[in-house]
Write a structure and sequence with these properties.
eight-stranded mixed beta sheet, Aminopeptidase, five-stranded antiparallel beta sheet, 2 domains, alpha+beta, 6 helices
Length: 264
């Protein structure tokens, strides 16, 4: 999930060698309150994405559990907490469950258009504001100006696409943003008309991204981080089969705990 632009620390604290053996420096952000779990602090490792090799670098960083915000790749590096688990959908084996199919019916007549490269449009921003006020009132993103929103949508050193969802009357009712990486799509952010939430528009948009990856012949949809104790992040277990990145740096089938089964 995209949040505000990560704070840029001053000095490198280490490095990683995912790209041609070249050492890519990693920087650490200072601890700050975690937006997902109360009474915890979060800390990130990040590295800038720039230049002609930015996409190739990000291709390899995504496989290592990194996400992107603006022109920065980041991953959690919290002390004494490993709750953020990178997950991805195995596209070829995905089949909607009965509950998912039920939630897709109301969105079956939506009209979908990809905008590539992505553009920050005023009507999208107004929808973004309504969504934030309804779902995340008081959060940092609810205070984003149009300039902040434009930076979130348009500042990218990799291949980024915006997807617009409209109803039969032509009104924009949802927007999804994803990054194209070498082995899949990396879902960046999505928002929708809050009054439509009973019709599961978020579910429809994720399933659309899975099917888009299938059409492109890509094996994975990267969903970011699953957090068992955070409802905002735990919904991702509905899109199976999932793989999770383990502490050994390998992706493996992920069977969520029984407590996640009740998520709707």
């Amino acid at each position: 999930m995209v949040k505000e632009r990560p704070r840029q620390p001053r000095g490198a604290v280490g490095g990683i060698r995912p790209f041609g053996g070249r050492l890519v420096p990693l920087f650490a952000t200072p601890p700050e309150p975690c937006p997902y779990l109360p009474e915890r602090n979060e800390r990130k490792l990040l590295t800038p994405l720039y230049g002609p090799n930015a996409s190739a670098l990000f291709d390899e960083l995504v496989v290592r559990g990194f996400r992107r915000s603006h022109s920065v790749a980041y991953r959690p590096a919290c002390r004494a907490c490993d709750a953020c688990l990178p997950v991805r959908v195995r596209v070829a084996d995905f089949r909607p469950t009965r509950n998912l199919r039920r939630g897709l019916k109301d969105a079956a007549d939506w009209h979908v258009e990809e905008i590539d490269p992505p553009a920050a449009l005023p009507n999208h921003y107004r929808l973004f504001q309504r969504y934030q006020s309804s779902r995340h009132g008081g959060g940092d993103m609810s205070r984003m100006s149009f300039g902040d929103y434009r930076a979130m949508v348009e500042e990218s050193a990799v291949r980024t696409v915006l997807v617009e969802f409209r109803d039969d009357g032509g009104a924009v009712i949802g927007v999804a943003i994803y990054d194209r990486v070498v082995d899949g799509l990396s879902g960046l952010y999505q928002f929708f008309e809050p009054d439509l939430e009973p019709s599961s528009p978020g579910t429809f948009m994720i399933v659309w991204l899975i099917e888009r990856a299938r059409t492109l012949g890509l094996p994975y949809l990267y969903l970011g981080y699953y957090i068992e104790d955070c409802r905002k992040m735990a919904y991702k277990v509905r899109f199976r089969p999932l793989e999770a990145l383990g502490p050994d740096g390998r992706w493996a089938p992920f069977d969520p705990p029984a407590s996640a089964e009740a998520i709707k």
